[in-house]
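Box 3.1 A note on notation
Throughout this textbook, protein chains are presented in two layers. The first layer is the amino acid sequence; the second is a token string describing backbone geometry. Keep the layers aligned when reading.
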Amino acid sequence: MSYRGDADVSDQVASRDLRLLVDAGLLEARGERRGRFYVRTPKLLELDERIRGQRQPKSLEDPFELAAQAVERPLGDGRHTRLMKLDSAAAERRPQDV
């Protein structure tokens, strides 16, 4: 994993960005040349904790159930039916009613 590859930037841009982050005190360079890697500094860790502390917690609801509710259609008599799209091959593979 590399910043250059993940961000799809040139070697020069990646070097500049990492140098700026080191100069700002957010990252610390470790190792030499090709073995060099970067770690978060206490300053960045504190900033991360402060930002995360201000966020609202994510919902613990089941995202699949939420999606299913979003595609339910009212029948008009107080009941709902879920919309299902089956292609002809999938319909033929359904087990027969007993």
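The first helix runs from residue 3 to 7. Residues 63-93 form one domain.
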